[in-house]
Amino acid sequence: MRILGGEDWVVWRNRSLLLFDRVPVPCAVCSTDGEILITNPAMAAEWGAAPGKLAGRNVLELFHPNSADQVYRIVEAVRLGVRSRYPVEVRWQSPDGARRYGELTADTVSDTDTPLWLLVLLRVLGEEPRPHAIGAADTAPGEAERAGPIEARILALAAGGHTTGQMARQTGLTADGVNYHLTRLSRRWGVGNRAELVARAYVLGVLAPGVWPPEPA
Hints:
Elements: H1 6-22, E1 27-30, E2 36-39, H2 41-45, H3 59-62, E3 64-65, H4 68-80, E4 85-93, E5 99-109, E6 117-127, H5 149-159, H6 164-171, H7 175-189, H8 194-203
Antiparallel strand pairs: 1-2, 1-6, 3-4, 4-5, 5-6
Helix pairs in contact: 5-8, 6-7
């Protein structure tokens, strides 16, 4: 039985999407074969992209399972129409070259009269040490503090005095997505506010010196 219809359904759909965007945990909705339908800003930020840019990709192309058996359990659950939650240990390489590992949790969900979908949530557990050549320094200057392309773009806009809303419009992200990137950079670089974040970006060579309006290096 359909409880909501017409304008009520549209209002609740929009509210649900707004809540989905605000969830701080990286998550995506996928079809049962792993094709990404939508992602929230936190998931897109793992790949330095706007949320819509990941649609159509397969989640297993982005995150590589440690065990095929864990994936097989999900395949069987979908085949049998079982609604449950399945963890999958995964590894992936982010756009800035960092090799991360964590856990994907796939929930099989649906309405009563629709096919199963997969609600996929990512828990980042850590980062592997970066490899380096024999005889090279253990850590190249700035190696652990590199910014991805979307992060560098946001930093350049922040340096130019743009508001969060303006940065969101110019990058194709939501305001929450911009704030997610800024917060993650602030934690990574150990700074307390946006002015310190911009100053740190110049010190690390992320932003080009002597250029106005500011640009990534």
